[in-house]
Write a structure and sequence with these properties.
Elements lengths: L4 E11 L6 E12 L4 E6 L5 H9 L6 E6 L2 E2 L7 E4 L11 H11 L3 H4 L3 H7 L15 H15 L3 E5 L7 H18 L2 E5 L3 H7 L2 E6 L4 E7 L11 H25 L1
Parallel strand pairs: 3-8, 3-9, 6-7, 7-8
Antiparallel strand pairs: 1-2, 1-4, 4-5, 9-10
The chain binds adenosine-5'-triphosphate (ATP) and magnesium ion.
Magnesium ion binds next to helix 1.
Amino acid sequence: MSASVEIKGVTKVFARQGMDDTLFALDDINISIQPGEFVSLLGASGCGKSTLLRIVAGLEIPTKGEVFFNDEIIHGTDPRRGLVFQEHTLFAWLTVKGNIEFALKAVKQYDQKKEEIADWLAIAGLSDFADNYPHQLSGGMRQRAALVRALAVSPDVLLLDEPLGALDSFTRMTLQDELLRLWKERKNTMLMVTHDIDEAIYLSSRIVVMSPRPGRIAKILDVPMNYPRNRASDDFTELRSQILKLMEFAHDVQIEYML
Ligand SMILES: Nc1ncnc2c1ncn2[C@@H]1O[C@H](COP(=O)(O)OP(=O)(O)OP(=O)(O)O)[C@@H](O)[C@H]1O
Ligand SMILES: [Mg+2]
């Protein structure tokens, strides 16, 4: 199952604790995501990517504007919109396997999907660590566990905040292929934050490049290449340099602002 997500005129202003002023995190963000699309958000640190994802998840309320999920306005969280946090949070008191079981039980899919847990552990390369607690894992292992916990539930919309950020490049590329395979198979709608331009091009059907302070959309780019994509192809290289230019532009704006 997949669903559409419509982000309409979303603005977010935070009150700064202990300060008189406010922080303009997002300014008039408009993105229309079709069911089954894979959209990535790229942009400098602090440009509001996580804030936008938390708003779509229903964890944060926009100051202005709204988000629609299949034409319904989003109010609060919903298991049909799964979020993998940037901090890849696992339940500390449950083992890796326990974390996946808990997620499946929470959406009443445990009986139907319990046979799949071993496969998910294998995909994450964690079969030998199923009974370990999060504190007994490396950072990358925790990240992989948090990712497969969200994938196991297969929500209609999967919101991924730098899901592969802490991984070495080899594991990262393997999991990118795994993400692609699962997306093709299940056709969930994906909205992923990444800092990695190549990762965004390799995976996405569209890339939203954001500029900072306040977070705005600098450009939305189509990625009209067939899968699997070749990182060394001319199309890939051309898009990479186009995005780099856009991000440099975003960076210049930030420096000007700070001066
Ligand atoms: N709960 C909050 N209260 C106050 N300010 C916040 C809050 N959450 C985020 N911000 C501010 O909003 C801005 C955007 O933060 P956000 O975490 O969305 O950035 P980001 O693009 O995800 O950055 P990174 O790439 O470093 O993860 C930052 O300036 C941050 O300080
Ligand atoms: Mg973030």
